[in-house]
Amino acid sequence: MSATVPNLLTGARLVAVPVVLWLLFAGGGEDTTMRAWALVVFVFAAATDYWDGYLARRWEVVSPFGKLADPIADKALVLFTLAAVVVVDGIPWWPLAVLAVREIGVTLGRLAVARDVVIPASQGGKLKTVLQLLALTAYLVPHPAAWIDAVAWWSLLAAVAVAVVTGADYTIRILRVVRGDGTTAHADPHTAALDDPPGRDVQS
What we know:
Strand content: under 5%
Number of domains: 1
CATH topology: Four Helix Bundle (Hemerythrin (Met), subunit A)
Shape: globular
CATH superfamily: CDP-alcohol phosphotransferase transmembrane (TM) domain
Largest sheet: none
CATH architecture: Up-down Bundle
CATH class: Mainly Alpha
Number of helices: 7
Number of strands: 0
Order of helices and strands: HHHHHHH
Distance between the termini: 29 Å
């Protein structure tokens, strides 16, 4: 049972992604009730990112499924929700482009060296995730006040800035591994996952 609960939470986060998209697109972004439900589902999904990692570490049940699905669920929730907001609300598209390129690039780079080492997370990567979730939560508020719109936009810009800086840092660390210097990475992926809140895999 203890091994199942964290995986169920991760699975719930994956299922939440199309639900949030449907609620936003079906309501055209203007239906207050559907947008409010999109906000509720998104906040629930974001909360599972903490709880699945917390429970997996507490019960010491880091699983292959969790290591694979957890980061996929995290990135899918953020990028697809942001894409939906870009479409229905007409916010600028370039933050989405920067974040998508950064996430795909870092993920592919880490996968390329994962057989030898696990690149440990940086505090900047965790900060980026928090800023992204804050921005999207604010964007999903139905008929927000001007200050909520400001929080959403500036949080998104801050997330982009942190993403660029941490993306460059990960690139340097990955290149060091490729060149044979593994001093910046953990050799034990199980240990790396356990030591790295909030998810079971590293938050990049």
